[in-house]
Amino acid sequence: MKEAAFYHCGAGGAIICDLCPRGCIIASGGVGFCGVRRHVAGKLYSLVYGRPAAMQIDPIEKKPFREYLPGTAAFSIGTFGCNLDCACCQNDELSGCRHLDVMAAVPVREPEAIVRLAQHYCCASIAFTYNEPTVFAEYVADVATIARREGVATLLVSNAYITPMAAETLFPLIDAANFDLKGFSDDFYRGHCGGRLAPVLEAIRFFFRLGRHLELTQLVIPTRNDSPDMIRAFLDWVGEQLSPEVPLHFTAFFPHLRLTGLPRTPRSTLERIRELALARGFRHVYLGNC
Ligand code: SF4
Ligand code: SF4
Q1: Ligand 2 midpoint to CA 130 (Å)
Q2: Which of 45, 140, 259, 277 could form a disulfide with 88 if both were Cys (CB 3.0 to 4.6 A apart)?
Q3: What percent of the chain lies above the pLDDT cut of 70?
């Protein structure tokens, strides 16, 4: 176990995690909502530091990045755990795992080893992906620091549910991010993801202002986050707070997990969204899973 980087001690011997806006209060012996940060004897520890449960070489376009290092391979890693609880998570085997023995059984790969593997397989970048990278932030930071020294780019594929304090440490180490903006309303975040919208917007804006490469993705779920009003609000926010030059990905939903009663996203819905975006001056609009 590696001591966590973002926490403080609270009343009654509890620990308060400062890594994400959830701010879990964790009693001795307990584990935070994400399942991978544990309070042991007055300190908080990451249970997944150095334990990549998934490693794969992917085309960078699969992450998805369409305007960054095109045609290259991304050495992709993920661990267990997540700080959100999306009703249709596609990586729930990793994000939903709460079995400490399963986490402990993953062979250790030190940060140097991850960078060496990326170089060995001629990958231009290392992607932190699959589950939510925020919950393994210490590992991300150490891998990214070495990767930068070695000339390997780093990619964050994230829900952006992170505190400003943690983002200030982590984001400057990252070269490019694709943030998942799940739906443009706080009700949607509360009802479908167990989170809140405002901290996500703050984190995305912060990353953009660092001048790093940014792309955004929204999974379009029929009747839940596909109304023209919600899409317009999303586009207006990106156009005003970021830039219409930010590449946007709209991807099709298919029934999964707790949303098996909904249909797949029709191609026509994605086409309609693309028309809305183009009409607002966005030039890089991509449709996925359709
Ligand atoms: S990172 Fe995990 S333990 Fe920390 S506040 Fe978020 S959900 Fe809770
Ligand atoms: S943020 Fe991503 S990994 Fe976490 S529950 Fe949602 S879809 Fe799954």
Answers
A1: 8
A2: 259
A3: 100
Reply yes or no on whether the pLDDT at 1 is more than 90. no
Centroid of ligand 1 to alpha carbon of 70 (angstroms) = 34
Atom 5 of ligand 1, nearest CA residue = 23
**pLDDT reported for residue 14:** 97
Is residue 290 very low, low, confident or very high in pLDDT (cuts 50, 70, 90)? confident
Ligand sitting nearest the alpha carbon of 84: 2
Rounded to two decimals, the pTM is 0.96
Give the domains, in start order, of the chain with CATH numbers: 2-46 (no CATH), 54-288 (3.20.20.70)
Q: What percent of the chain has pLDDT over 90?
A: 97
The identity of residue 265, as a single letter, is T
Rounded distance from Cα 135 to ligand 2 centre (Å): 11
Does 162 contact ligand 2 (Cβ within 6 A)?
A: no
Cα dihedral sign for 193, 198, 202, 208?
Answer: positive
Long-range (24+ apart) CB contacts under 8 A made by 187-193 are: 188/224, 188/225, 188/230, 192/86, 192/87, 192/88, 192/221, 192/224, 192/225, 193/84, 193/85, 193/86, 193/87, 193/159
Mean pLDDT over 2-26 rounds to: 97
CB 47 within 8 A of CB 32: no
Q: Is the CB of 183 under 6 A from ligand 1?
A: no
